[in-house]
Amino acid sequence: QLQASGGGLVQAGGSLRLSCAISGRIFSGNRMGWFRQAPGKEREFVAAVRWSGDTTSYADSAKGRFTISRDNAKNAVFLQMNSLKPEDTALYYCAVSNLSGTRYNYWGQGTQVTVSS
Questions:
Q1: In degrees rounded to 5, what are phi and psi of residue 86?
Q2: How many Å separate Cα 98 from the centre of its chain?
Q3: Mean pLDDT of the chain
Q4: Is 25 exposed, middle or buried (0-12, 13-18, 19+ CB in 10 A)?
């Protein structure tokens, strides 16, 4: 199971740090991802990191502002979000991929991020 937390209301330009606690075993091939869905829009990819190594990936909208990280000892993944914009307002989900990293099979319940202008 995945439990996302850390969302809230913040002014534009502010920061939030999202956390995702993961229960169960994670393997080196798994990817941990953050996604978001704004009202009336489709869910979109934000960032991902492999459970082993330093490989990360970001959506263009997140590059330079968001940082994904993990703590293997705590089975947790984080998303540090800086310089937040009103268009970052969405429900943010964490997810775990299959062992090949090609499909996200496990999803958390989401945490709401609201950025006011």
A1: -55, -30
A2: 16
A3: 95
A4: exposed
The two three-digit tokens of residue 80, written as one number: 């540090």
Q: 37, 111 in Cβ contact below 8 A?
A: no
pLDDT for 82-106, tens place per residue? 999 999 999 999 999 998 888 999 9
Q: Which residues, 6 or more positions from 39, have their beta carbon under 8 angstroms from its beta carbon?
A: none
Indicate the pairing of strand 111-116 with strand 8-11.
parallel
Give 19's Cβ-side CA count (13 Å radius): 7
Q: Which of 34, 25, 28, 27 is nearest to 6 (CA)?
A: 34
* Both tokens assigned to 51: 């459970």
